[in-house]
Design brief:
By secondary structure, the chain is an alpha+beta fold. The protein has 17 helices and 42 strands. It catalyses: ATP-dependent breakage, passage and rejoining of double-stranded DNA.
Length: 824
């Protein structure tokens, strides 16, 4: 008895090795598509099996069970359900943008119905699938042995069709997954052709040709940011929305009609989900849901109650159901001859197709060239025989056997064995004069073909031209219009703003970072000199730093002492009572430890031209507003700051308003905005005002025609002065006096551009809030002291000021307000 060798093995190493082997097998041989033909192994085996059996698009349908059995028996060492499921999916027009299999029978439905058993359905290759397989018999791709070595299967298909991006792919491997959306054939063909002509093309240039995915179920894509991210990095997230319209249902009611759904959404489950939400009272206003889809297309009807608002119900459906979904793009595919999984950009995916086609065309050309040279060789021998016909015939007649005749021909006429054999097989009818002429014409054509094929191999540009010709033919033969419509500049997320009223609100933020939202009418308007009412119970040594009146649907931009900006919606700030302290801002935005908000701004739409910023040390900067329209959750760099400087004020500008800078010691500088050139987000800006020793900027605002500059000190002394009294000076000068301070302990706390009808809201460090009209405050000259505006208690001081325009009723519901953020 032979005793085996016992070898100690670490179970950790053994498990790691075994698991890695399993993982790579799943990654390479099952779950991920090859970047060259866009197919997983099971799909490739099904298509090649049907091609090999002759189940072409011009042949009768064959039972699916026959196809599945042949694929299992020859190539795919897995279960029959895996093969049939893959076959059925390639025949479903709601799953594949361009179905590769032409199915007959029940292959399922968009409602989630499963396909009929394989013994009932029939299939054959779709015409477009043959574009993946044509040329496979010309040694264009490598073949390998099947699982038992009894059959040869292709490693990859020649794939004239750019199938990976065309039909997309999804799969979960071990430790990685892929989710590639489908695209439009015409756009793909044009983009590949453009990339061939412009190898240095950028993703942005390619996106002008391929604006985004094109799903088989159509629908809408909201926004292009996710598409750009996916095409640039290989990963991104896009928002898909159902296509709907509103129709009258009679008796004053309406109905919402859904005609297109997001990709991979089950219509029947959607209908059930809507019914559940109505039953649970999570969506109000829906009376009934019925499916009126037929062979002419989808029609899911949502009947509304008479008092329901269609837009509000529709927004609720987008928010709570799969009528709006997200599609996470992860363009992971196998590269390097199907051995390495990589996340690929759009350009890399297109280039992988081009590289594969170059290799296929090279191998095809070499195959055709070898056959042409072989035929030319034979024809040269036939020409020799025809030129020496009598001698050839005599040689054959004098030979005792066919073998001796072949050897005699080779010796007497310097022929090769193949040429001699071709002469022996020459039919007598080919000796006719006309047939001899055909041989000579064929020889000339073959020589011409050889020259063309050699030229292709010698000239890579010819190969690229052939790729473009193939793409042009594909587009003309199979191209169709785009189905999915892309709506630009829409975030797509249905947030609470679509479901809540758009009302005027007041936002307050303390020095310790407590923020709250309340209605402005919580504070009554008072006359000048009022003491105000209690606005917030603040923690010990906490003061209100920022006050802003805006609409509940406005975007709030928070600018910090570190030069960063964060963004939320105003309605996302918790609603609190007048005396509540609010919620820490860190619960709403990702502030870094120790980071402090120094300016707060409300923006309705990002359609104005610029943001103008000013720092405490007098730096000024101008940047285009759209650069701040999409602020990440962890913030963006808003301005580069020098050591010790702080960003204090930000204003929305159209680019022509004069800039006003006011200092704590009562100086104001007015200069033209054109003196500050537009800069990028990380820029530090330029000198705005020359500050005296110990002075600092306390306000920056933009001048308006016919307006006044309101100045208020920490002790509540203030006044209005016409802007016409402030002369234009050059940037980086000292400015002119704007108010005479009554004593050395007082200083300017805030300044703002106001009009006669402006509503002002003052808040003190102690939390007292007072609202008044600008008309209540005296208009005085620049060099005067001012009057009491806020009756500040001992030890208290003015901390913040908000300016807004009233509506027709005198309430603060007009234009977006101006925020003053004093640093004192």
């Amino acid at each position: 008895m032979e005793i085996g060798i016992v070898r100690p093995v670490s179970i950790t190493n053994e498990m790691r090795t075994a698991y890695l082997s399993y993982a790579m097998s799943v990654i390479v041989s099952r779950a991920l598509p090859d970047a060259r033909d866009g197919l997983k192994p099971v799909q490739r085996r099904i298509l090649y099996g049907m091609w090999d059996m002759g189940f072409r698009s011009n042949q009768p349908y064959k039972k699916s069970a026959r196809i599945v059995g042949d694929v299992l028996g020859k190539m795919h060492p897995h279960g029959d359900s895996a093969v049939y499921d893959a076959l059925a999916r390639m025949a479903q027009p709601w799953s594949m943008r361009y179905p590769l299999i032409d199915g007959q029978g029940n292959f399922g439905s968009i409602d989630g119905d499963p396909p009929a058993a394989m013994r009932y359905t029939e299939a054959r290759l779709a015409p477009i699938a043959e574009e993946l397989l044509s040329e496979i018999d010309k040694d264009t791709v490598d073949f390998r042995d099947n699982f038992d070595g009894s059959y040869r299967e292709p490693v990859v298909l020649p794939a004239i069709l750019p199938n990976l991006l065309l039909n997309g792919a999804s799969g979960i491997a071990v430790g990685m997954a892929t989710n590639i959306p489908p695209h439009n054939l015409g756009e793909l063909c044009d983009a590949i052709s453009y990339l061939i002509d412009h190898p240095e093309a950028t993703v942005e240039e390619l996106m002008e040709i391929i604006p985004g995915p094109d799903f088989p179920t159509a629908g809408l894509i909201l926004g292009t940011e996710g598409i750009l991210a996916a095409y640039s990095t290989g990963r991104g997230q896009i928002t898909l929305r159902a296509k709907t319209h509103i129709e009258e249902a009679g008796r004053g009611a309406y109905m919402i009609v859904v005609t297109e759904l997001p990709y991979q959404v089950n219509k029947a489950r959607l209908q059930e989900r809507i019914a559940e939400l109505v039953k649970d009272r999570k969506i109000e206003g829906i009376r009934d849901v019925r499916d009126e889809s037929d062979r002419n297309g989808m029609r899911l009807v949502i009947l509304l109650k008479q008092d329901a608002q269609p837009k509000k119900v529709l927004n609720a459906l987008y928010k709570h159901t799969q009528m709006q979904t997200t599609f996470g793009i992860n363009m992971l595919a196998l590269v390097e001859h199907g051995r390495q999984p990589r996340v690929l950009t759009l350009k890399r995916l297109l280039q992988e197709y081009i590289n594969h086609r170059q290799e296929v065309i090279r191998r095809r050309t070499e195959f055709d060239l070898a056959r042409a040279r072989e035929r030319a060789h034979i024809l040269e021998g036939l020409k020799i025989a025809l030129d020496n016909l009598d001698a050839v015939i005599q040689t054959i007649r004098d030979s005792r056997t066919a073998e001796s005749a072949r050897n005699n021909l080779m010796r007497n006429f310097s022929l090769t064995e193949r040429q001699a054999q071709a002469i022996l097989e020459l039919q007598l009818r080919r000796l006719a004069a006309l047939e001899r002429q055909k041989i000579e014409e064929e020889y000339r054509e073959v020589i011409k073909l050889i020259a063309e094929l050699e030229d292709i191999l010698a000239n890579p540009r010819k190969v690229l031209h052939l790729i473009k010709e193939d793409l042009s033919r594909l587009k003309e033969k199979y191209g169709d219009p785009r189905r999915t419509r892309i709506i630009p500049d829409v975030t797509g997320e249905v947030s609470d703003e679509d479901l809540i009223p758009d009302v005027r609100v007041m936002i307050t933020l303390t020095d310790r970072g407590y923020i709250k939202r309340q209605l402005p009418d919580a504070y009554r308007t008072q006359r000048r000199g009022g003491r105000g009412i209690k606005g917030m119970l603040t923690r010990e040594q906490d003061i209100v730093r920022h006050l802003l009146t805006c609409n509940s649907l406005d975007n709030l931009l928070f600018f910090t002492d570190r030069g960063k900006v964060y963004q939320i919606k105003a309605h996302e700030v918790p609603d609190s009572s007048r005396t509540a302290k609010g919620l820490p801002l860190v619960n709403l935005v990702s502030l870094e430890p120790g980071e402090q908000v120094t300016s707060m701004l409300a923006v309705r739409e990002f359609d104005a031209e610029y943001l103008v910023m000013a720092t405490v040390r007098g730096k000024i900067k101008r940047t285009q507003l759209r650069e701040y329209s999409q602020v990440r959750s962890n913030g963006l760099i808003a301005i580069g700051l020098e050591e010790g400087d702080v960003l204090g004020w930000v204003r929305v500008s159209h680019g022509h308003e004069d800039i006003l800078l006011t200092t704590a010691r009562g100086q104001t500088l007015r200069f033209e905005q054109s003196e500050v050139r537009p800069m990028g987000r990380p820029a530090t800006g330029v000198i705005g005002i020359n500050l005296a020793e110990g002075d600092r900027v306390v306000s920056m605002d933009l001048a308006e025609e016919g307006a006044d500059l309101l100045v208020v000190t920490a002790r509540g002394i203030g006044k209005r002065t016409a802007l016409s009294e402030y002369p234009l000076k050059g940037r980086a000068t000292g400015g002119v006096i704007t108010i005479k301070l009554r004593n050395e302990t007082d200083e300017v706390a805030a300044a703002a551009v106001v009009r006669e009808h402006s509503l002002l809201t003052f808040i003190t460090t102690g939390g007292m809030v007072m609202r008044t009209s600008a008309s209540e405050i005296s208009r005085l000259g620049r060099a005067t002291q001012g009057v009491t505006v806020v009756n500040v208690a001992s030890g208290d001081r003015v901390a913040a000021l908000s300016v807004e325009d009233p509506d027709e009723n005198g309430n603060g519901n007009g234009a977006a307000p101006t925020l003053i953020d004093p640093m004192g």
